[in-house]
């Protein structure tokens, strides 16, 4: 009999306690960010969309080797000895002509393992996250600008996609 | 949904798509009215061939894959793998890396337990604590985003070190967060844990006695909720946990028999407070250093096999690696704590009501990514 | 309804209509007025629920539709539901499936004809008003069972059965709590009950004697179970049964269930206001001031206060399990309400 009334009292007290906590929360400011009109600034180390500054790329494909999902495809060929020397912006001499540099963002797992081995730091993960497209093929980024110039087949430097 | 006409037993399917199975889990319930005669779990809907995949990826590239097993506590998954490979290769990391690893792991433990508490409240019917827990978790995720750039799947613990060092001023932010957060746990207790209705819903259901728990190999908060004081951080310490002063939270059965859903849930809430203590002590132990100094140029472990276990928020996580001396693992096997606890689910839920099945499932705090890998 | 009849007589040639039509048309017009009022009230209540729940959960709620804090959100949602495809699952009992939402709505709608919104703003003054409300309020059970059965879905069946058990069990304490108010008044008519509370807050039944205060709490809790609100929302328990008895409904039929739930909430709050909080009568004692806020507005404000408490309870408390719900009704609320009736009767005789 006594436990019946004790339970009743306990029930009423804890229910009122919960209601009191909820009441207090009615007056705390909201933490909602009203997204399209207000946008947060992304931290500088954000790992979002990949970007390659192809003018600095030396075609070593260290990024393609490091990628766990094999989303980067690099094909490059040796520049001829008679062609003028070109340099990346930090002074490294570019010995290879990159003819294919594709990144398939649908395969990318945003781990940033590709950005660390890059010798000239041309491959970076930017803080841009609003890049939805209508066609899946548009997620395959083609960065290379050069055309193949040698007669023989370009040296296969990319790893095969599994 | 088939109707079984033999006797009174009706087969009800809580299918892969259901609001309160935490992921894609299919529960086949054989019910007699409201009482459940059998609750048979069917898993495999999220199987992604993790263990086969990693045989084709080199050792540092496995880390993003381990993130995606238990996506709610990714730091701990990475930590287990990284410690295993370092044990195989014999790498010692410096004090700064050790302390940062502990801080990140404990912050992730808090985040994971907040998800557990919030979604458990959601299943029981109290929708408000879910949002409060997620609001606090957002601060933790912002801290992570500042450090490594990602909010959920970090790739932060590397073999031999870390991806990035803290930004200056990070320790202060962590302490500020812990100072803000500890009273919020009391708020959570007031609205959910001590609420009479919640206690009545959970303190008398899902009783898992210590013998059943040990027989099935259950570990983590599920085991500690049944009164067994076993924590890998205390019994087989790694990363220097033996020098940190914290208590192991154990279920005491305050509102019902020991081993009830309430006990398991309360163990998680108490663990959150213990994690706050650990973080404070570890921040005080931080020394300056280079977090990348022990990272090898190429990770090529010697041939052999190794097993290492760590305490992830859901239990004891074990990694077994067989290496043939090459650049890629020959075999990687993960001992997933949620998988073992699901095997105990059928026995624990026999004889309860349908609403209790949801309560028991929530108190086990499973993540299907870890069960199915 | 008298005023509507008078208004109608102003229409030319209205007196030429046969007597039968003259009797029925005011009834129809007042029903349409009540329906419009109810629709507006529900529109407002849904918006209020979303805002209250959002602020309790530290978020903002609707902000966009209509400009100022999203006041037109409910209109947008209703339009969206109207435009959805009308799916009637193949193996259902088509007639029952289609009838169910309307019967559930009927249970709430029909009870509004006796609720007095103001001194002369009511459709009719039945001398058995309270009994009529209690009787009609249980019509919705039939609709819920029909919905659960006709959906041909085990989850809906569970939801329907649970709802029926719950509503029927909680009608008893709620009716007995209402009886504690009837005893001092001596009449079942709603208008008489309100008139007995005229003159200010000290005349409200809520504050007249402690038994009726407790009876108000019993009625409030029992009525929460009548309308399937948390902590008693087992029939619609989202996390267990997907959506209970209205899982299979989509589009406008679902909108009707939704409308019925909020209409029921409003009904129960209105009845509690009329019986315990003095209906449309003034708050300040009549010795200080005469009633300056019009009756219907004051009525609506009081009902809104009770609805706010209902929403507050919904977002603070977890859900009760079915057997705990039954325990609460039969073993806690029923004995307490019986004791309260005895207490009020004793007071009436010996005081």
Walk me through what this model shows.
- The complex is a heterotrimer of chains A (162), B (373) and C (351).
- Chain A has a domain at 50-142: Alpha-Beta Plaits (2-Layer Sandwich).
- Chain A is built from two helices and seven strands.
- Chain A has helices at residues 2-26, 62-66; strands spanning 50-52, 72-78, 86-87, 93-94, 96-104, 123-125, 140-142.
- In chain A, the strands form three sheets. Chain A has a three-stranded antiparallel beta sheet, with no helix packed on it. A two-stranded antiparallel sheet of chain A has the order 1-6.
- In chain A, strand 3 and strand 4 form a beta hairpin.
- The mean pLDDT of chain A is 84.
- Chain B is α+β, with helices and mostly antiparallel strands.
- Chain B has a single domain, classed as Cytochrome-c3 Hydrogenase, chain B (Orthogonal Bundle).
- In chain B, strands 1-2-3 form a three-stranded antiparallel beta sheet. A three-stranded antiparallel beta sheet of chain B has the order 6-7-8. Chain B has a two-stranded antiparallel sheet with strand order 4-5.
- In chain B, helix 2 runs antiparallel to helix 3 (74-89) and helix 4 (95-124) runs antiparallel to helix 13 (354-364).
- The model of chain B is unreliable at 1-5 (pLDDT under 50).
- Chain C has two domains: 1-51 and 62-83; 92-350, no CATH class.
- Chain C has helices spanning 2-9, 19-56, 73-82, 94-109, 129-137, 139-150, 154-185, 190-195, 210-226, 238-241, 252-276, 295-314, 322-350.
- The interface between A and B is medium-sized, with 27 and 32 residues.
């Amino acid at each position: 009999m006594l436990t019946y009334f004790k339970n009743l009292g306990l029930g009423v007290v804890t229910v009122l306690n919960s209601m009191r906590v909820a009441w207090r929360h009615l007056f705390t400011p909201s933490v909602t960010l009203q997204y399209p009109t207000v946008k947060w600034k992304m931290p500088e180390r954000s790992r979002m969309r990949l970007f390659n500054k192809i003018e600095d790329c030396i075609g070593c494909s260290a990024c393609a080797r490091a990628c766990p999902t094999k989303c980067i495809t690099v094909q490059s060929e040796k520049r001829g000895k008679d062609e003028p020397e070109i340099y990346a912006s930090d002074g490294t001499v570019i010995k290879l002509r990159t003819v294919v540099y594709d990144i398939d963002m649908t395969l990318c797992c945003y781990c940033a393992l590709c950005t660390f081995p890059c010798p000239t730091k041309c491959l970076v993960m930017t803080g841009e996250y609003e890049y939805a497209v209508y066609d899946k093929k548009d997620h395959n980024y083609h960065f290379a600008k050069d055309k193949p110039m040698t007669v023989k087949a370009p040296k296969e430097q990319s790893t095969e996609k599994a | 949904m088939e109707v079984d006409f033999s006797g009174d037993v009706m087969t009800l399917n809580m299918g892969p798509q259901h609001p309160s199975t935490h992921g894609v889990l299919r529960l086949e319930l054989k019910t007699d009215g409201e009482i459940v005669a059998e609750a048979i779990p069917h898993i495999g809907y999220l199987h992604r061939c993790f263990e086969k995949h990693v045989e084709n990826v080199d050792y540092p590239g496995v880390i993003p894959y381990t993130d995606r097993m238990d996506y709610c506590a990714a730091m701990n998954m990475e930590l287990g793998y990284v410690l295993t490979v370092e044990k195989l290769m014999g790498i010692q990391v410096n004090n700064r890396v050790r302390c940062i690893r502990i801080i990140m792991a404990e912050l992730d433990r808090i985040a994971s337990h907040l998800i557990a508490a919030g979604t458990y409240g959601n299943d029981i019917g109290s929708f408000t604590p879910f949002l409060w827990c997620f609001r606090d978790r957002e601060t933790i995720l912002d801290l992570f985003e500042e450090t490594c750039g990602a909010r959920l799947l970090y790739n932060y613990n590397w073999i031999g070190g870390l991806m990035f060092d803290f930004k200056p001023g990070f320790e202060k932010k962590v302490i500020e967060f812990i100072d803000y957060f500890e009273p919020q746990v009391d708020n959570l207790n007031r609205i959910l844990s001590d609420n009479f209705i919640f206690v009545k819903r959970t303190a008398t259901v899902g009783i898992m006695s210590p013998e059943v728990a040990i027989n099935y190999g259950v570990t983590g908060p599920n085991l500690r909720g049944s009164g067994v004081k076993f924590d890998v951080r205390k019994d087989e310490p790694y990363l220097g946990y033996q020098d940190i002063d914290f208590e192991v939270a154990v279920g005491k059965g305050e509102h019902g028999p020991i081993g009830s859903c309430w006990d398991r849930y309360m163990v998680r809430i108490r663990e959150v407070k213990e994690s706050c203590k650990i973080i404070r002590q570890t921040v005080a132990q931080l020394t300056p250093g280079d977090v990348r100094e022990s990272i090898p140029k190429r990770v090529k472990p010697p041939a052999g096999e190794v097993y290492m276990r760590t305490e992830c928020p859901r239990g004891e996580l074990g990694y077994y690696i067989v290496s043939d001396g090459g650049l890629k693992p020959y075999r990687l096997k993960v001992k997933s704590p949620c998988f073992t606890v699901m095997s105990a689910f059928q026995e624990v839920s026999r004889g309860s009501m349908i609403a209790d099945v949801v309560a028991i499932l929530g108190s086990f705090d499973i993540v299907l990514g870890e069960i199915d890998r | 309804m008298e005023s509507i009849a008078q208004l109608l007589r102003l229409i030319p040639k209205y007196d030429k209509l046969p007597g039968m039509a003259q009797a029925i048309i005011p009834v129809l017009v007042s029903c349409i007025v009540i329906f419009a009022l109810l629709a507006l009230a529900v529109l407002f209540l849904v918006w209020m629920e979303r805002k209250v729940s959002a602020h309790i959960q530290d978020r903002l709620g609707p902000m966009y539709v209509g400009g100022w804090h999203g006041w037109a959100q409910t209109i947008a949602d209703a339009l969206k539901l109207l435009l959805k495809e009308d799916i009637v699952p193949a193996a259902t009992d088509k007639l029952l499936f289609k009838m169910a939402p309307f019967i559930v709505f009927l249970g709430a709608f029909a009870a509004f004809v006796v609720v007095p919104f103001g001194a002369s703003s009511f459709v009719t003054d039945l001398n058995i008003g309270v009994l009529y409300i209690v009787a009609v309020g249980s019509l919705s059970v039939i609709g819920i069972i029909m919905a659960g059965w006709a959906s041909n879905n085990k989850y809906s069946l569970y939801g329907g059965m649970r709802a029926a058990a719950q509503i029927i069990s909680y009608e008893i304490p709620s009716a007995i709590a209402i009886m504690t108010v009837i005893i001092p008044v001596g009449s079942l008519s709603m208008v008489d009950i309100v008139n007995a509370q005229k003159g200010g807050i000290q005349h409200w039944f809520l504050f007249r004697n402690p038994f009726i205060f407790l009876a108000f709490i019993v009625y409030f809790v029992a009525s929460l179970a009548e309308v399937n609100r948390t902590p008693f929302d087992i029939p619609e328990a989202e996390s267990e049964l997907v959506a209970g008895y209205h899982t299979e409904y989509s589009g406008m039929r679902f909108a009707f269930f939704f409308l019925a739930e909020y209409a029921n909430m409003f009904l129960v709050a209105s009845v509690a206001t009329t019986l315990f909080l003095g209906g449309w009568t003034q708050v300040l004692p009549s010795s200080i001031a005469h009633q300056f806020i019009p009756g219907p507005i004051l009525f609506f404000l009081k009902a809104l206060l009770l609805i706010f408490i209902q929403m507050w309870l919904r977002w603070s408390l977890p859900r009760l399990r079915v057997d705990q719900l039954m325990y609460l009704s039969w073993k806690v609320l029923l004995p307490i309400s019986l004791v309260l009736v005895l207490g009020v009767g004793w007071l009436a005789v010996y005081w």
